[in-house]
Amino acid sequence: MEGPHPGPAPPSPPAPAVAATLQDVARLAGVSAKTVARALNGEPNVRDATRERVARAAAALRFRPNRLARELRQGARTGAVGLVIGGLENPFYSHLAAGVERALRAEDLELVIASTDDDPERERAVVQTMLERRVRALLVVPVAEDHRYLEGERSAGTPLVFVDRPPTGLAADVVLWDNRTGVRQAVDALVAAGHRRIAVIADRIANFTARERLAAFREAARAHGLGLEPRLLVVDVHDVPAARATALRLLAAPEPPTAFFGLNNRITVGVVAALLTTGGAQAVVGFDDFDLAEALGTTVVANDPAAMGGRAGRLALARLAAGPGLPEQVLLPATLVRRGSGERGPAAAAPSRAAAALA
Amino acid sequence: MEGPHPGPAPPSPPAPAVAATLQDVARLAGVSAKTVARALNGEPNVRDATRERVARAAAALRFRPNRLARELRQGARTGAVGLVIGGLENPFYSHLAAGVERALRAEDLELVIASTDDDPERERAVVQTMLERRVRALLVVPVAEDHRYLEGERSAGTPLVFVDRPPTGLAADVVLWDNRTGVRQAVDALVAAGHRRIAVIADRIANFTARERLAAFREAARAHGLGLEPRLLVVDVHDVPAARATALRLLAAPEPPTAFFGLNNRITVGVVAALLTTGGAQAVVGFDDFDLAEALGTTVVANDPAAMGGRAGRLALARLAAGPGLPEQVLLPATLVRRGSGERGPAAAAPSRAAAALA
DNA sequence: CTGAAAGCGCTTACAG
DNA sequence: CTGAAAGCGCTTACAG
Predict the structure, then answer these.
(1) Where in the sequence is the domain holding B285, given as residue range(s)?
(2) pTM for this structure?
(3) How many domains does chain B have?
(4) Nucleotide nearest the Cα atom of B45 (by C1')
(5) C-alpha span between B193 and B185 (Å, rounded)
(6) Segments of chain A scoring below 70 in pLDDT
(7) Which residue's CA lies closest to nucleotide C5 at its C1' atom?
(8) Which residues, 6+ apart, have CB-to-CB distance to B263 below 8 Å?
(9) What is the CATH number of the domain that holds B195?
(10) B97 in contact with A at a CB cutoff of 8 Å?
(11) Keywords on this record (chains A, B) (predicted)?
């Protein structure tokens, strides 16, 4: 923008072996440290000439302020927010993280991410490390079964937001899906389309999400007078290959299901993969959206992980700005959406287009 | 593990309004700060009785050491590594980040992530912030067109690793795909299957990756004596909907392509979506793997972003341990893989199974 | 085995 | 408009 575009690389000033400090700049500019701080931080009460001299000295030394030092002085809190998730391989979590990151940009806060791999021990370890780093706020998709270990932190005022699943034994902010409504709509649609033998596949049942969605399914099924065949309820299915294998097994058994309900995106993708392979004409409904849902005509409960992350991030920022208050529970919509061109009947009933074609 | 499992929540000790410091612990334990540090950090030369007294005092005060202070004293560098990527919504980047995170665990380093949205200005801004935070090492998927702004940092010894694309105007470590081999294999397979009218869709052409892959395609096409129809080479296609729209447009034109080559995962998914919608029988080959590639029988150049992230992370750790050396260029394999059951002929030639069925 | 003093690189709270 | 002193919460480098 300013200055001529450099032709051949200008002879770079001899790089200091070690980073220059504000004191170095002060010495070179012939002023005090305080004046350097004023000049560089855009504070008032600096003569233009002084300001310029400082700027030149800083540039010559390639001065880069040390945020650790600044933040230590300003209250021993870092300018980063911590996010603890299951793992970035799962698009649910990565989209969630993307939403959080975007929310933090508004306040120029950084994002520290750690994965738990759904291991409660790791959750405690990474949370501990983040708290030692004094993150400004902490967002957690919890896996531990007891969060009383965070009570001290909560009462100390660190904004603590739980995401996707509530904490146990701790009153804190939490952002959740309206799982019950999503599940009920899915079951309603399947039943309306005539399905009675619905296979339900869930993730690790130790987690709140799987339990709540499964409970909601049981309730909805009961309401519709469906018998619950235990063999059609499979839990602890955590990744795409496992879900695919589960679906294949169910399809190969006598009296296979006429429909599948995948309780998260990894599971639904696995089920779809199985149906594409076998050419089965079973209906599929999935919780969470996924890449090819629309093209494959798969009906999904279309929650939006990025929106959830954004909501959680903004909640943390609000706490930061306004101080703690009564813990809040935010319920985000998760409603059934028919993906695809819509030229066919009720999605839940219609076999996915590709699967039908393959039959 | 130790102590009885708590029944009703034990009366929690009155939480301190503000975090306890090491000095507070020292006062309560009746020892000096140095002794507290020794006891809590597991250093030798502390009597067992003292160690225990300190531990009790720390527990009573819920003492949590402040890493900012520790790290400031220990050289003003944080225990985190910075990762700058395009955006977490893209599975390529999120898998890359997952690989980096896993590599860092070995050294108990944390991970700070920032997205550029492929904006050079943002790259500079987030890199600047990370350097001010004094990250131990910096991993960057670059978008800027000039990286001389990092020369000072490089010569100061901060491990700097570029990922997926090389830096410009700066000698630094870089981890890349063997794009040429991957592209050549893809074109070879398509030509061997009889394709002459191959549509190629690329991401933002300002980026190295798109340029290199497109150049490799041109070269391979020339080697096979294929004419290059400009209308079949589409660039600056950045997301799934755009890729889908592009494919639909090409299919609707006179003399549509008989095959598509998607130069990254977002594009390939969009092309597959288009073919699933239209029922087209065109062949598809994609750069980068994607979720349903196997089930859909799509042939892909199967690179592994998590492996790339892991390699880049380990390279940074090695620099950290051994100090700088000559910049290294790591070329990771990216080779054609036939996804799917393999019961059909050369993948590249065969229309994807679902697409065929839909025809 | 233990402690007093100094310092990491900034900002705060004053004083002029 | 400018600066000297103290301090954030730890660890380093000594001394005993």
Answers:
(1) 179-302
(2) 0.90
(3) 3
(4) C1
(5) 12
(6) 1-17, 339-359
(7) B34
(8) B200, B201, B202, B203, B209, B210, B213, B214, B217, B287
(9) 3.40.50.2300
(10) yes
(11) DNA-binding, Transcription, Transcription regulation
